[in-house]
Amino acid sequence: MCIRDRPFRLGIIGAGGIGSIHIRNSINNKDINLVGICELDKEKAKSCIKGLRIPIAENVNELIKLRPEGIVIASSTTSHGKVAKSIIKAKIPFLCEKPLASDLNQAKQIANYANEQSVYGAMAFNRRFHKRYSEMRKAIQIGEIGTPETLHVTSRSANAPSAKFISTSGGLFGEKGSHFYDLIRWMLNSDIHEVFAYGDALFDPEFKTINQPDTAVVLMRLNNGVLCSLNFSWRSGYGHDERLEIAGSKGMIQTVQNTNTSEHDTDKKAFFKLRNLPNWNEVFKKTYSDELNVFISEIKNGRKGNLPTLSDGVEAQKIADAIDQSFQTKKSIFLNNL
Questions:
Q1: I need a labelling partner for 238 at 20 to 30 A (CA). Which of 11, 310, 320, 337 fits?
Q2: Closest by alpha carbon to 195, among 8, 338, 87, 293?
Q3: What is the C-alpha separation between 15 and 18, in angstroms, rounded?
Q4: pTM for the complete prediction?
Q5: What are the Cα distances from residue 18, in Å, to 24, 97, 108, 192, 288?
Q6: Taking each helix axis from N to C terminus, what angle separates 17-27 and 280-301, rounded to the nearest 10 degrees?
């Protein structure tokens, strides 16, 4: 059988929220042979494979011995540096879930090491694969709204994560925000020049104990002059709320929420209450399988360029670190100083 025709040998590290999505997609894809999962919590891994005879490795080296042709890194953010180093040393291509690392120095180390060893690494910024965002980018590129001037992001999660999870995930700025920093750079073809952040733990006192905000507003100025505002929260009382609006010299383009109703609530004296918003998994379910298919295709065909790069991951990490620094110091941060 030609190597291009047989199922691709894939390994996955992590069986948590995102890892379980990749595991399920791999099992359901006839073109993928899931050769192994690396997960310390074997019961969690077993719950994902539902009785299938897929090896569960306790460490990365055990997974590497199963001879995967590519690996998805979906473990905790704090583990990415060590995990990526082992994968790169073994010369195996990898797709890394965001954020690339827990800080900028580690992100640079991963990208530099992969480059030195000529190992293909890509970032799983799956929002790029959603039609709503690819259409916005195309509209901007062909000049439908003229010259972009302002951009606004709203991202509020229906189910708040625990402070324990946040302590290893990258937090509001690193974990949630990284998708949108990447989208901004990708859509507007510009890096970020300056950031300022307000944030606080408004509803979860445990976040205060780890000095992390559960709610924040971030302001950005891009190198091309576009002004951006981002409204982040780990809580939404009405479902997963993710909206993006870009205004330009000739018009405006925005995403539209899929909701059944927007109404005046006289009993609770609320002006508007959005209901029945789809959860994030419903909205972005297809993007995970799409990016995985592209990752495998690029390895098999030897043609790269359709996935976000490790350099994109480094840039997103630089922005996250600058925003966190602004939050800590209450000062505006210029990214060319990082």
A1: 320
A2: 338
A3: 7
A4: 0.92
A5: 10, 8, 23, 28, 9
A6: 60
- pLDDT (tens digit, 9 = 90+) per residue, 152-176? 999 999 888 888 888 888 899 999 9
Torsion sign (Cα): 327, 329, 333, 335: negative
pLDDT exceeds 80 at position 280? no
- Cβ contact 80:86 at 8 Å: no
| Residue whose pair of structure tokens reads 């190198």 in the numeric block | 223
Q: pLDDT per residue over 208-232, tens digit each?
A: 999 999 999 999 999 999 999 999 9
Annotate the chain with three-state secondary structure.
Answer: CCCCCCCEEEEEECCCHHHHHHHHHHHCCCCEEEEEEECCCHHHHHHHHCCCCCCEECCHHHHHCCCCCEEEECCCHHHHHHHHHHHHHCCCCEEEECCCCCCHHHHHHHHHHHHHCCCCEEEECHHHHCHHHHHHHHHHHCCCCCCEEEEEEEEECCCCCCHHHHHHHCHHHHHHHHHHHHHHHHHHCCCEEEEEEEEECCCCHHHHHCCCCCEEEEEEEECCCCEEEEEEECCCCCCCEEEEEEEECCCEEECCCCCCEEEEECCCCEEEEEECCCCHHHHHHHHHHHHHHHHHHHHHHCCCCCCCEHHHHHHHHHHHHHHHHHHHHCCCEEHHHC
Mention every residue, 6+ apart, whose C-beta is less than 8 A from residue 338: 104, 318, 321, 322
Structure tokens at 113: 């090491």
Question: For residue 238, which amino acid is it?
Answer: Y
Only one residue has tokens 């379910």, namely: 285
The Cα–Cα gap between 47 and 35 comes to 17
- Gyration radius of the chain's alpha carbons: 20
